[in-house]
Amino acid sequence: MVQQDTTTEKGTPSATYTWSNPSQRPKQIEDLILGVERYDPTQVQVLEDYLASQFNEVFYDPLANLATLKLYQFNPDLVPLAAENPSNPIEAIHDSVTVKILLLSIAHRPFDSDFSLGLSMCGDRMSTLVTPQGTLTLINLLSKLSSTLQSRKFNLFWSLLSSSEFESLWPLISIIKDFDGLIRRSISQSVSSCFRSISLIRLKSYLGLNDDQEVKDWIKEIGWSLIEVDGNLKAKIPDNSDNRPVTTVTRENTTLEDLQQILARSVVA
To answer: What's this model's pTM, rounded to 2 decimal places?
Structure first.
C-alpha cells in the first residue's frame, strides 16, 4: 500500500491534509465520520456538540460539519419546521447549527468551495415552508459575504460587514474568536500570491484596518517587512511559488529515426 505524503517540503502538514484531518479532531469523531455511523441520525447530537468545540477552540473540521448537514439532508424529521419564537430566527437548534457551519466555512476557508458545498446540502430547506424567514435571511447574508470574498472584493466585504444590513449576523460572528483576524490572514495569503510588494494604503483597505500602525503591526505579525519606495512605505512580501514563479526549460531529444517517422506520417495524412 502506498502511504500518502501529508507534509510539505518544510515538514509542516499540507493544506489538504489539515483540511481533511485537523489535529484537534478526537478519535471518536474520526471513527464516526469515516464509518457507517455517519448515516446514523442518533449521532447528530455528537456532531452538534463537536461543532461547539470548533468555535471554542478556534479550529475547523469541514468533513465533520458536512456530515452534520448530510444527516439533516437525509433525515428531514431532525429539522423542526420553524423556530418556536419567531422573533429569534435561529432559536431552532438545527437552524442555528446550519448557519454556524456556513459561517465557519467563510471564516476559515473563504476562497474555497466549502461554503457552496455546505449550502448545496441545504437546497431542499431553502423555503419558508420548512425554514423560518429569519434563518433564510441570515443564510442569504452569508451567501453575499461569501461571493464578495470569492470575487476578491475585499473593500466591499468590510463595508458590508459593518453595515446595518448585516447587523443580524454580528451576534453570530462574535462567537468566533478573532473572526476578523481569520479573514485578514486569508486575505493576506491571497495577496501574497499576487504581489511582491503592496502599498500600505491599499493593504489597509484590503484588511479593513483603520490606521497605518495597525497595518504595520499586522505586517510584523505575519512575517512581512516594510520598505520605502519613492518616499512611500510598502509591505514587502516574501517570495513564494505564486508571486515569483521560476522559469523552467524543458528539452527533448529526438533521434533522426523518430523524425523520419513523424515526417512520413505527416505526408501520409
So the answer is: 0.80
